[in-house]
Amino acid sequence: MEGGKCCLENLELVRLLEKSYKNKKVFITGHTGFKGSWLSMWLQNIGATVKGYSLDTEENTELLFESVKTNLEIESVFSDIRNKEKLQTEILNFQPDFIFHLAAKSLVRYSYSFPIETIETNITGTANLLNSLIKLDKRCNVIVVTTDKVYENKEWIYPYRENDELGGYDPYSASKACAEIVTGSFRNSFFNLNNFDSHGKAISTARAGNVIGGGDYSADRIIPDIIKSLSDNSIIKIRNPESIRPWQHVLDPLNGYLLLGCRMSEAPLHYSGAYNFGPLPDSSLTVLELVENALKHWEGGSYEVSMNKNEPHESSLLRLDITKSEIELNWKPKWNSSEAIKRTILWYKKSFIEKENDFELCMSDIENFQK
Q: 117 Cβ partners below 8 Å, 6+ apart?
């Protein structure tokens, strides 16, 4: 019976996504990023018409987008979300039914080196997007993707809920907390739910963290660092071995974003708000545990702990409470952290060693996720 129930739930998921997104216009900012590339492929597979807006990627051959773009039948606009006139023009010309705002400077360590760029992109860029909607004369569901780091992290064992205090130690975390506040301000001021019939805009924020999956090559992320070391036959350097993170496969939060968009389309007054998308409580692992799991599936490699007192501050403990998403959206993670690590490492092995097509590898994971 349990297997039958699982199949029924997955069949319902496929039908729900197709009902909501097939032949609909979806605008994605940051579509060339790690999450954005996976989301673009998934939406194309569903049958959506996708338009992406991102910085130019031609010089960055390591991006997943560069290896899959020949298989993507989507329109790409290359510009900066800080260019408010360009962004507004592209949105108004496209007339989207859904917007997923993923464009951001998304690395903590990067934000220490480039705090102003991080703040301008994450805060002003979000404001530019929301301001563009004022002139969009049609119904549209908007999901602003932030991060689990928007919470004022007290390093406690309790998972954070959507109504907990926002904050941020580093420029990245603070900028994303501000993006949450800006989003709430625009929703209250210009897209108030009491006046939904006049403006037709439903706006939510989605908070997720440490996603892993095939095709991530970003600097200062643990999986890309592991893969680079394994490919070079070098020792993996671990900075914060005891830090606990809510590891999850990229498809789990993306599934949450898509489900949220479905619910917003059905009942915008009820589903406009903030939602956490994290793993189940028993899926939080230390960085060391993740590395050891990864080496097991790669079947080789070695590591060493490389502590540096001068490293910039990063939180050591962070957990999300996903009760709201479970109850209101009927969402929960499908792959636990062990399964996420396994699928991620096997993706890289097939890409690097067996030279399989990256797009086909992604589509295979998407199809397996839905089965």
A: 105
